[in-house]
Specification:
By secondary structure, the protein is of the alpha+beta class. The longest helix has 29 residues. The structure holds flavin-adenine dinucleotide. Flavin-adenine dinucleotide binds next to α1, β9 and α9.
């Protein structure tokens, strides 16, 4: 039997917006409830891998992302100890396997903003800011979601299902009593954005780069600046264990950090800096009764390889394809169990495994092991078949296929 009540989505971040758009395309009513007063300008995710671009293309977003973002077919690994370039991976090798053989650099806040710009004027695209989800009750045929407004009043929303897209600290996951299992790294990560054009400084620098170093590895990615601003180069590097946010964000400390990678006399013009606590955690289940989890509420991981949001978008698209027929009465609600089975596997066997391996690869301290890893990376990049196999895993192509194979 078809449901009457809309699907309630807690959180208005990128995963919520993709889920909302995927439901909208299938004419399933929803309400997005976001605690903030307006879309958050969030400098976290930027890299969208080929399968994600393909999914976003089906929703009508890829052409905007490609036009406004940066296409990055190639990424490179560097050894910061010797200053050698170790390996280059070219997604063009996968041109006959994927529709978009490149990564698109497009920050997550631009994705949220674009969805609202394109669809937000339609009353059916129901997004409400300043709505803080505080809890819920679930019944056999509906959920009641409790929301605190900015003036402190409490409102109740009735929905058919509640989806927690409310990030790593998810209120929905906690209120549902779903365990979040894994570990937190002892060191925090700092992201520093600079306007200084590093491609001009060193022509071995690509749009996406990884630097191996026993104490201070780095992810270095370029993103488009805001209109009339230059592009920004984003460094993500580990902090020392015990180093405070204040110490890491001190101007001199940030300059020293960047100059250890790119020595120069002049200072770098810094666009922004953020500090992150980083964990590898996966929820024990992504569905419990009428409550579902997607994105960071279901899994978090380190940002090396740019996989967290990609996995979240894969969740959103997978979930919408199941929620829509269930909501319309065309499929049994048991289909939602398959959502957990598919996306839990994708998260643990691929995103978690790969991001943990990526960090180990970059930070290896043992000199013999380190050289072995770098040699293997170079050998992989020089053998087209091995390079393709590596990219299928690193770009989450294998992850999407493995999830789809679960029935
Ligand atoms: C430095 C860094 C770089 C990264 N780079 C990449 C990358 O390149 N590629 C990639 O794939 N991933 C990357 N990630 C991971 C990525 O940022 C996250 O996976 C992504 O933000 C998850 O999106 P989300 O919508 O699930 O959660 P969030 O972005 O956390 O959004 C959650 C939303 O829910 C709202 N909310 C929270 N609680 C409530 C409540 N109770 N009621 C209502 N609203 C609520 C929040 O205000 C927020 O708007 C990176 C992460 C970091 C730290």
């Amino acid at each position: 039997m078809a449901e009457r009540d809309p699907i309630i989505i807690s959180g208005g971040g990128p995963v919520a917006m993709v889920l909302a758009l995927a439901l909208y395309r299938q004419e399933v009513p929803f309400i997005v409830l976001e605690q903030l007063d307006e879309p958050f300008v969030d400098q976290r995710a930027a890299s969208h891998h080929p399968p994600t671009v393909e999914m976003l293309d089906k929703l009508g977003l890829a052409e905007h992302m490609i036009a406004e973002g940066l296409k990055s077919p190639v990424y490179r690994f560097h050894d910061r100890v010797t200053h050698d370039m170790i390996a280059e991976f070219d997604l063009g090798l996968l041109a006959d396997e994927v529709e978009f053989p490149f990564v698109v650099q497009y920050e997550q806040y631009k994705l949220v903003r674009k969805v609202i710009e394109l669809f937000g004027d339609d009353p059916a695209f129901d997004v409400r800011f300043s709505h803080n989800v505080t809890g819920f009750e679930q019944f056999d045929d509906h959920v009641i979601v409790f929301v605190e407004l900015s003036d402190g009043t409490i409102e109740k929303f009735r929905g058919s299902y509640l989806v927690g897209c409310d990030g790593g600290r998810s209120t929905v996951r906690k209120a549902a009593g779903i365990d979040f299992e894994g570990f937190t790294y002892p060191e925090k990560f700092i992201k520093i954005g600079t306007y200084f054009d590093l491609m001009k400084y060193d022509d071995r620098i690509a749009i996406r780069n990884y630097f191996s170093h026993p104490e201070e590895w780095c992810n270095l990615f370029r993103v488009r600046g805001e209109p009339d601003k230059p592009d920004i180069w984003r460094f993500v590097v580990p902090m020392r264990v015990g180093e405070t946010e204040e110490e890491a964000k001190a101007e001199e400390a940030m300059q020293e950090r960047l100059k250890r990678f790119f020595p120069r006399d002049d200072d770098f013009e810094i666009a922004y800096a953020n500090v992150y606590t980083v964990s590898q955690l996966v929820a024990e289940t992504f569905n419990k009764g009428r409550v579902l989890l997607a994105g960071d509420s279901a899994h978090v991981n380190n940002p090396i390889g740019g996989m967290g949001l990609n996995g979240g978008i894969h969740d959103a698209v997978n979930l919408a394809d199941k929620l829509a027929p269930v909501w319309k009465g065309d499929a049994d609600p048991d289909l939602l169990e398959l959502y957990t089975r598919q996306r839990h596997k994708a998260s643990t066997d691929f995103t978690q495994a790969q991001t943990i391996a990526n960090k180990k690869q970059l930070e290896e301290r043992d000199p013999v092991q380190r050289q072995k890893r770098l040699d293997e990376m170079r050998a992989t990049s020089e053998d087209p078949e091995k390079a393709k196999a590596y990219m299928r895993r690193a770009q989450l192509i294998d992850s999407v296929k493995a999830a789809a194979a679960i029935t």
